Amino acid sequence: MTNATVCRVDDNAVAAPAEEVGPRLPKGSYLPINRCNLPAVILGGLTFQRHPAPLLLDGVAELHHRLFRSLDLLAEPGERAQRFMDYMTVYFRLEALEEVGLMPGRRKLRGRADYLRMVRGWAFDPNSQEGAVLKAWVESRFGLLARYHGGLLDDRIRDDTYMHFLEACSRGLYNTNALEAQLDLLYAYAQYEQRRQQPTTAHLSLYRGFNRFSDDQVLAKPDRRRWIVLLNNLSSFTCNRERASEFGDYIVTTEVPLTKIFFYCGLLPGILQGEDEFLVIGGVYEVTLSTL
After folding, report:
1. How many CB atoms lie within 10 A of CB 95?
2. Comparing C-alpha atoms, which of 7, 3, 2 is closest to residue 275?
3. Phi and psi (nearest 5°) for 38?
4. Of the segments 18-32, 37-51, 216-230, which one has the largest average pLDDT value?
5. What is the C-alpha end-to-end distance of the chain, expressed in Å?
6. Residue % of the chain over a pLDDT of 70
7. CA 45 to chain centre
8. Which are the contacts of 215, defined by CB distance < 8 A and separation ≥ 6?
9. Is residue 8 over pLDDT 60?
10. pLDDT at 17 over 80
11. In the beta sheet, which residues pair with residue 235?
12. Beta-carbon neighbour count of residue 247 at 10 Å?
């Protein structure tokens, strides 16, 4: 972790003028309630991308205040990462699952479904069971509905794809050890580290390779290269433009608020390093399109 690099951008990145009013978060893409300090219709909108604010999950900072006070005393990111992982192991009894209800002698595969396995599973396949758990977590905490998981989730009553998504979420969460609470704390730690390492930065320039957007994703086209799109509630981006070119014929570039980054390369040792990957919470974004 000590040698891991954190991708940075110019601290003087300028947000779009406030008078430019774009499309709002479409109805049917968000929930009326969430577990965050801002409602989904605000945090998922274009105005939030241009003028971000802190996103605080209910009760997380208060419950784990001792962890964050102890992190304040550590100067090295590697030391803080190790302290965080040690805290997670102890607080959630990740190496003593019998203490939190696992029957002695029972298989421990369920209990091993911890926060690290979720992120690693996403890196392997965002449409995996682990990916479904992460998207369901974003729905619960931020109120932004998943739009894609192995197919478009456009009919939540009669659609088989949506039923498969729900089944994957249920299997992924069944009999785990406070897995959603682990993800809450992981997000809070990612936000803490970004504020600590880049205190004056509000956005990161990130890239994503793609072949085409679905029709319901494109909300407006102010000009040929500048589009306003609705992203899935959790998506992968990279800080390496060349890396993004490996995943599609076109490249999307966007300014992502730091407060919408759930996890990123270099946060914890050995995770998401290969593709300089960032897990970005979705909503409406203004993006720039370019060819390879």
Report:
1. 9
2. 7
3. -125, 145
4. 37-51
5. 32
6. 86
7. 16
8. none
9. no
10. no
11. 280
12. 16
Mean pLDDT score across all residues of the chain: 88
Q: Which residues pair with 256 in a beta bridge?
A: 204
CA distances, 181 to each of 44, 64, 80, 198, 221 (Å): 22, 11, 20, 26, 39
CA–CA dist 232, 135 (Å, integer): 9
Tokens of 280: 């970005």
Who contacts 45 (Cβ-Cβ below 8 Å, separation ≥6)? Answer: 24, 25, 283, 284
pLDDT at 11 (0 to 100): 39
Write out the H or E segment, with its range, that includes residue 274. none
195: alpha, beta or left? (left if phi > 0; alpha if psi -120 to 50)? alpha
- Under DSSP, is residue 149 helix (H, G, I), strand (E, B) or coil? coil
pLDDT digits (tens, 9 = 90+) for 149-184: 999 897 777 778 999 999 999 999 988 889 999 999
What is the model's pLDDT at position 211?
86
